[in-house]
Amino acid sequence: MGGLRLKKFRIQLMIKAQEIKKSFLVSIWFMFLTFPIMVIRVNPIEEVIEWRWKNMLIVGIGSFLLSFVWRYMLKKREAGEKRAETGESGKTFLIQRILEERRFYIPLVTGLTIIAVAFPFTFSMYQTSIMTTALMYIVLGLGLNIVVGLAGLLDLGYVAFYAVGAYSYALLNYHFGLGFWSVLPIGAVLGFIFGVLLGFPVLRLRGDYLAIVTLGFGEIIRLVLENWNEFSFGPSGIANIDRPGFFGIQFSLQAASIYLYFLMIGLVIFTIIVVNRLQNSRIGRAWIALREDETACQAMGIDKTKTKLRAFALGATWAGMVGVIFAAKTTFINPASFTFLESAMILSIVVLGGMGSILGVIIGALILILLPEYLRAFSDYRMLIFGAIMVIMMVFRPQGIIANIRRTYKFDE
Amino acid sequence: MEYFLELILGGLTRGSIYALIALGYTMVYGIIELINFAHGEIYMIGAFTALIFTSVLTLLGFNEIAVIVLASLSAVIYSSAYGYTVEKIAYMPLRSASRLSPLISAIGMSIFLQNYVLLAQTSDFLPFPNLIPEFEFIKPYRYIISSSEIIILLTTSTAMILLTFLIKFTRTGKAMRATAQDRKMAMLVGVNVNRVISITFIIGSALAALGGVLIASHVGQINFYIGFIAGIKAFTAAVLGGIGSIPGAVLGALVLGLTESFATGYISSDYEDVFAFGLLVLILIFKPAGILGRVTTQKI
């Protein structure tokens, strides 16, 4: 009896030793890998070399520990896959259960409403402004979610439509003195038109080509804005854009920021309602079907190009609208606000939150926009973390924090 | 006429650099049907490694030729190591996932590597020493072609010939072609698919590093962002020639290099990148299979 237990113990110990050896090798590999970039820093002008051996130690220890976590997570993922294969359904998440039960759902919504209404009056203008930005990203995320999450089209040039909206307000305001409320629908329509114009030629392409072409389009629009001085005032941008008014009344700075906040809350609610209705509509189902299997979808008589075009243009519409609000909020825009990194940020919101899931996107936007604001120490590492999130989420949890549960119909006797 | 000749040679030089990077894209796409967005970053890391080792070795008192050889070699080794690691972390666990997942993972990896270099090094442009010495015999033609252009053209063509040889006549090359044709079938006949994919990434990254060293010493400065634009352009070249086809990538890269050279030479240099993207969009709309690519039909 004792001997058997000892044997078991010894095997376990051997496995442990193997694991440690594996992690040790990984850490050596990473120390080698990061050696030139992390340890040495050269200043070619003054010809000084800085050696930062401390970084090597950090990389060594960090990768040693992380490799354990990595392997553990991979194992867990495999177990999950096996479970899915045998048909055992995973547990539903707490949040999903709350959403399904009315008893929890109603107080939760009331609570959120109270917080949302009280927020600008209890916190400073700065906090309100950050919150407004987060709300803008929620709408952008939900817009991109239509394209990426529902229709499965990877759009890397989403920021182009955002730029179209922002510039349409800035230019119309500058040249013709048009107000915010008259440009908001114009921005949306222009976003839609640009979506159709750009989408029409590229949507016949396969998924990965689409990604790179949209990336190219995004860069073209930015480069044109940067270089076409007569039209867009080049890199110096456009300043003194009017803040939104209310039937001709212009607000003070503080009132305007609160006004914008509530405007964004309204837009978020509007977007949620629209996207939610879309999801379960004929078009929404066609999108999801298209994402899952194009060929089967075509066989069912769905016009592939038209359906994709609808998703693309609708996504662009939201970007155009938020673009107008962005210009009105910052009162100054230049092409530097519309780089690829912006598209990448919106994409990581959708990826983190969960592709296709409305609640997921909202939570993803709040996490990714608010956290870097409050953790100033990490703000330099923001893009680094965004990149890492995209990889980690895809490897371990491609469905996002909050998975989109599709309505399923059960047959009970 | 001289201006015209200069533009042609400039375009060919540009094109051959794009070709070195484009080969990595096309090889990876040929084998696992993934656009390796992080490929441009591998090229950037190659350039950075070369710069770092050049400075260190020069300060340690090595002679010029040793510096050139060792710095280029370390760039190639490190880039290959990065390419290998990126594949193991970001793509290998996603072999059986849907198409969108590895693509997003690749974009994440690209952003991660860019910011890793930005944070660990600097965001400024760093001057890159001209590693290639001036040849005496080129002096009279200096206004048409520089010796670095000659070296670039020579190195690139040698690399292409070696690569073609490797793919056509070696066992590894055969395994690569088999994996590209049908991964499952290759596995069944005993090809170690994971190893073949790793080798593909390593070769592609090594070529990209070579391109990085050459272009950095030709242009004279680098920063963390060079990989992004170069990556898109090389991808354009790969698509132009027909993605998955190796001679196609070279042809596409040369066409792209010449187009850019003439467009910037005769039209305007402000819109240099717009021409490349414009060409990409036009190609994808009118001939998505590329110049040498075959139209594949989807089987169910």
List the helices and strands and how they pair.
The complex is a heterodimer of chains A (413) and B (300).
Chain A: H1 2-39, E1 40-43, E2 48-51, H2 53-85, H3 94-100, H4 102-122, H5 125-150, H6 158-176, H7 180-202, H8 207-227, H9 229-232, H10 253-279, H11 282-292, H12 294-299, H13 304-330, H14 340-353, H15 358-374, H16 382-396
Chain B: H1 2-32, H2 39-60, H3 64-91, H4 100-120, E1 126-127, H5 147-169, H6 171-181, H7 183-188, H8 193-219, E2 221-222, H9 226-241, H10 246-266, H11 272-286
Antiparallel strand pairs in B: 1-2
Question: Can you put this structure into words, describing what you see?
Answer:
- The complex is a heterodimer of chains A (about 425) and B (about 300).
- Chain A has about 425 residues and is an all-alpha fold.
- Chain A has 2 domains: about 1-85; about 125-395, Orthogonal Bundle (ABC transporter involved in vitamin B12 uptake, BtuC).
- Helices cover about 75% and strands about 0% of the residues of chain A.
- Chain A has a two-stranded antiparallel sheet with strand order 1-2.
- In chain A, helix 5 (about 125-150) crosses helix 14 (about 340-355) and helix 5 runs antiparallel to helix 15 (about 360-375).
- The longest helix of chain A has about 40 residues, at about 1-40.
- Chain A is globular.
- With about 300 residues, chain B is an all-alpha fold.
- Chain B has a single domain (about 1-285), classed as ABC transporter involved in vitamin B12 uptake, BtuC, CATH 1.10.3470.
- Chain B has a two-stranded antiparallel sheet with strand order 1-2.
- Chain B is globular.
- At the A-B interface, helix 1, strand 1, helix 2, helix 8 and helix 14 of A face helix 2, helix 3, helix 4, strand 1 and helix 9 of B.
